[in-house]
Design a protein that fits this description.
The chain is of the alpha+beta class and about 625 residues long. The protein is built from 18 helices and 22 strands. It folds into four domains: about 110 residues, Beta-Lactamase (2-Layer Sandwich); about 110 residues, Beta-Lactamase (2-Layer Sandwich), CATH 3.30.450; about 100 residues, PAS domain (Beta-Lactamase), CATH 3.30.450.20; about 150 residues, Histidine kinase-like ATPase, C-terminal domain (Heat Shock Protein 90, 2-Layer Sandwich).
Length: about 625
């Protein structure tokens, strides 16, 4: 009996020792029977499952499984397989209902018939580890998806040896992933960029820089790389994001070239929004207009507008460019200081990839000097034409109008001399009257020629004085009255008794020529009217000479005052003219500060008008 007690005490002491040992282990230790009774459990297992030890020892194992069938399957497996030890992951539930993932390492204790009697096991809580593994797996999945979807190339390397690449990098370089893996990155970096890359790797540089990469086809691309150092499973790797900036660089070069061209352009360049407000002007614009960049931006180009350009011109321009077409034309513009200049402008819409107009660009060239040159050439050509016409008229008058009377004068003198003793005194007087008329006509023609020549050569002395118009008209009528009497034409006057500021002799010539013309083209027994009227709200007087004669064909009216297209027709009594009279009238009226024009209808007569300044 005493031996039995001694053995029992020994066993209890041993059991306490084992319990003290196992209770302090970080894992759960148990023994269960085949039918699920918990024979032994340490305190760590009770803590793990959130029970006290007594509660746990009075429970069935089945109550701890999330799925009770899982233990039945486990027992069947142990009964069939010869192995007595196994390890697997199972799910248990705690007293509070929380699910634990545990690693269950079990040793099967069998009887002499090889049937399971006990299950001795160790439970290790791997819930956190499982969650970490799942999180890592999820993170890796997300990383894989992101790297495969991103348009940036991704390289992961360890000390320059490539570990992984994404499809974008492979497409960018032309190499497949298997080929790249394990290769040294310097194999794919252009020599110009290797030293910089090496320094950045050695210094663990993180950030962005630019390299030139070599593609599979040996061509190169310019790439912007962004580098970060990361730890993966306690190993340091470099993750490199690669962006192909070759086309961007080309675009930047093109933009730089265009920008330089725009800034250095000899033409003014203006860019506006679709509402016509200025967004950009180049330095030439500032040079030409005097407006600075800041003064011009936000303004409408109408700040340059002058009254010379009509609203219809702007309307046509906007209609053209609004339809997507280019408008070209000339503007007379105004600088900031108020001076004017001419521009040749080409205005075009800027259209985006969707066909929408987003801006307008105007390229404008200062053509002021060119216009002056062209105007000078036109004037020179006009002057040359006029000079040629003047010469032709001059020689025509000398050849015909002057030579004829002089020739007639000579013939009459010869006849008079040859027949002097055979003709009567009355006949001699007739000869003298004819010769006197020819002398007067020739003298007047010479006076007109000399006056006209002095005007052309700007040698005419032209003094202005205050002259009474009524007296001047009366004196002019006295000169040509004999011609009117020959055709029985009555000259009716209605002239204001007013003074005008003129050159007396020149206006006397004008009135005489206009009256002579009216008499020349009037039929016998008619009348010629000369009248005047003061123009309202003006310091001018208008004088008109009206006849009821043959009139002027409409197509000849524009030719009357032009030396290059002048012509002469016979009067109603076959009176011969030179075509010089009206041209002389125009020159003299203009030199007196007035204007001259005609209104006429064929077979109904003509009215010549001219204006003169009034003495204040």
């Amino acid at each position: 009996m005493s031996d039995h007690k001694k053995n029992s005490d020994y066993l209890n002491r041993e059991k306490d020792s084992v319990s003290n040992l196992t209770d302090h282990l970080p894992v759960g230790i148990y023994r269960t029977s085949v039918d699920g009774n918990i024979i032994y459990a340490n305190q760590a297992l009770a803590n793990m499952l959130e029970y006290n030890l007594d509660e746990l020892l009075n429970m069935s194992v089945q109550d701890l499984y999330n799925d009770s069938n899982e233990r039945d399957y486990q027992i069947k497996t142990f009964s069939i397989e010869p192995e007595t030890t196994s390890s697997k992951e199972i799910c248990l539930k705690t007293k509070r209902g929380k699910t634990l993932v545990v690693k269950d390492t079990v040793k099967v204790i069998k009887n002499k018939d090889s049937r399971p009697v006990y299950f001795d096991g160790i439970l290790e809580d791997i819930s956190e580890k499982k969650r970490a593994e799942e999180a890592l797996e999820e993170s890796q999945t997300r990383y894989k998806i992101l790297t495969e979807l991103t348009i940036e190339g991704i390289i992961i390397h360890e000390n320059g040896i490539i570990v992984d690449t994404n499809p974008s990098l492979q497409k960018m370089t032309g190499y497949n992933g298997e080929y790249l893996k394990g290769k040294n990155i310097f194999q794919f970096i252009h020599p110009d960029s290797r030293e910089l890359t090496r320094k950045n790797i050695e210094s663990h540089f993180t950030g962005t820089y630019e390299v030139r990469l070599i593609k599979k086809d040996k061509s190169t691309i310019i790439a912007e790389v962004e580098v970060k150092n990361v730890l993966i499973e306690n190993k340091e790797y470099r993750v490199v994001a690669v962006r192909d900036t070759t086309s961007k660089k080309d675009i930047e070069k093109e933009i730089l070239s265009l920008s330089t061209a725009v800034k250095q352009s000899p033409a003014s360049i203006v860019i506006t929004d679709t509402n016509g407000l200025i967004e950009y002007v180049n330095p030439k614009f500032t040079e030409v207009t005097g407006y600075t960049f800041e003064e011009a931006v936000g303004k409408n180009p109408s700040i340059l507008k002058t009254e010379h350009t009509k609203s219809e011109d702007y309307k046509e321009m906007w209609e053209t460019i609004s339809k997507g077409n280019t408008w070209r034309g000339e503007f007379l513009n105004k600088r900031k200081d108020g001076t004017h200049y001419w521009e040749l402008a080409s205005i075009s819409p800027i259209i985006d990839e969707n066909g929408k107009t987003i801006k307008y660009v105007a390229v404008k060239e200062d053509i002021t000097e060119r216009k002056k040159t062209v105007d000078a050439l036109v004037k020179s050509e006009k002057d040359l034409l006029q000079a040629n016409a003047t010469k032709n008229v001059f020689f025509s008058i000398i050849a015909h109008d002057l030579k004829g009377p002089v020739g007639n004068f000579t013939q009459l003198l010869d006849l008079f001399k040859e027949n002097f003793y055979d003709i009567t005194n009355d006949e001699k007087l007739d000869y003298l009257h004819i010769l006197t008329g020819l002398s007067i006509k020739t003298n007047r023609l010479l006076d007109d020629l000399l006056l006209w020549a002095r005007i052309q050569m700007n040698t005419l002395e032209f003094s202005i004085e205050s002259v009474n118009l009524k007296s001047l008209v009366k004196n002019s009528i006295d000169i040509i009255e004999e011609r009117a009497i020959e055709k029985n034409i009555k000259i009716i006057t209605n002239i204001d008794n007013i003074n005008v500021e003129i050159n007396k002799s020149s206006i006397k010539t004008v009135i005489r020529n206009l009256l002579t013309n009216s008499i020349k083209f009037s039929i016998k027994d008619s009348e010629v009217n000369i009248s005047s009227r003061i123009l309202q709200e003006s310091n001018f007087l208008e004088i008109s000479v009206k006849d009821n004669g043959v009139g002027i064909p409409e197509h000849n009216i524009d030719k009357l005052f032009k030396i290059e297209s002048s012509f002469s027709t016979y009067g109603t009594n076959r009176e011969k003219g030179t075509g010089l009279g009206l041209i002389l009238c125009k020159n003299l009226v203009k030199k007196n500060g007035g204007n001259i024009w005609v209104e006429s209808k064929e077979n109904k007569g003509s009215t010549f008008f001219f204006t003169l300044p009034i003495k204040k």
